[in-house]
Amino acid sequence: MRSYRSNAGPFNERPYYTADEIERICVDSLRVVGLYPDSPESIRIDRFIEKRFKVVPEYEDLGPGVLGMAKFGNNGVQGIVVAKSLDDENSKTNERRIRSTLAHEGGHGLLHAHLFAFAADRLLFGENTPSGPVVLCRDISGSAKSSKYSGQWWELQANMAIGSLLMPRALVLKAISKYLVPSGQLGLNVMSQEKRGDAVNELADLFDVNPIVASIRIGEMFPENRSGQMSL
Questions:
Q1: Where along the chain do its domains lie?
Q2: pTM
Q3: CA dist 3 to 6, 61, 110, 185, Å?
């Protein structure tokens, strides 16, 4: 991770992470708390939040369009909150949105807690609440390229953590090996375009995420504009 001087926002530095760095941070964190599975399956993200940050996710009314909130203090994460509206509607789609929201907030905890080490009295990204420094996250889709964030680096980074926490790269590769075929002189594996939809649906069920999250994860690993070749 590198840091750059920032002229915007409440902090003087802006951390920069590569996709590989975020993947490594998330996977290492899952392993440390014993929640990285041996084979592809649903990650217990709520348990990860509890074990990694020593907080129990809470559900509150966060207002229109806000799905999650991370609270920070001198010692890092002090609380993670999910919009009560998601919990009120008992549907598989909303249950999976809760999982994505928890992973997003967990991403903030893993990637941004250090920004508060010497600035706990500041409010992160202009949000002012009685509970102190927070990150309010609006309408998380799971996309690291969502236009709704308008270049907000902290949201883009936290969204990248969604895939790494809920669908670790190595486990995804195990799960979709049957959809990959060798291509070119080097025999590099590529994703069959005809089978991409089937792979998305299988990953969504296997990792208990909404199809959009699975689709984005596959798109990150096997970009369509590279003829489905895996991006390292």
A1: 2-166, 169-226
A2: 0.83
A3: 9, 34, 15, 39
